User: Fold this.
Amino acid sequence: MKPTTLFLAGLALAAAVTVNAKLVKQPVAYEHAGVKLEGYLVYDDTKVAADKKAPGVLVVPEWWGLNDYAKGRAEQVAKLGYVAFAADMYGAGVVTADKDKANELASQFYGKPLMAERAQAGLDQLLATGLVDASRVAAIGYCFGGSTVQALAFSGAPLAGIVSFHGGLHAAPAGAAAITKAKILVCHGAVDPFVSKEDREAFIKSMDEGKFDYQFISYAGAIHAFTNPKADEVAKATGLVGGIGYNAAADKRSWAHMRAFFHEIFAVKK
Assistant:
């Protein structure tokens, strides 16, 4: 039996044994460029069925790796009625709380094709579930993940849209405008110390010159990682106080903006 067939059979079994549960949660093993990965698939089986395919959302984690925060966001997305897949960028079980290690892990991707390619591997897994309408797929990412979904969009991936939450901003590369299919929503902390004025201006300039369909929303007083309720705790533990921090208002508003964006790109009535 082919791996894809086994995977789909596993999904059917999971749905059968959780018939009374709303959320089906399942680790998914896959591989990219010789690296063994493990993503996290989640969907509401009262809203999603193989015979009535739903929009899909790829979720790309912060630079800490595929931790509970990223999985929790995937679950929140699933509760909206979408099929969510939290991608693994580093390798099965590779998660850290050490900022130096996180920087080391993330650095292998920045400015390299590997960033979009590894994210595409996760997108392929989402599409392989058989539960997703391939014409209605988006990707969202946090911090490092925000940069990743930008790179994925610029690679020409078949996405209806992307949402970058407090992601690093990277100007669209030459030729990206001609192949980018995704509409773009950037949810940005207005006083994020990790994104320079020059990077912000270069990103917006590339959007305007390339005539991308984009929205850029800045949240007053918000710094890096403003959507993560544990950001203040992490900041103290890692010496990043003043660099990262939770902002409840920005978190709530950006989630609402994402939902409105999804309603638009997926053509779902509010």
User: Anything to note?
Assistant: The chain has a mean pLDDT of 93. The CA atoms of residues 142 and 152 lie 14 Å apart. The chain has one domain: 3-265. The beta strands are 23-32, 35-44, 54-60, 83-86, 132-142, 161-165, 183-189, 214-219.
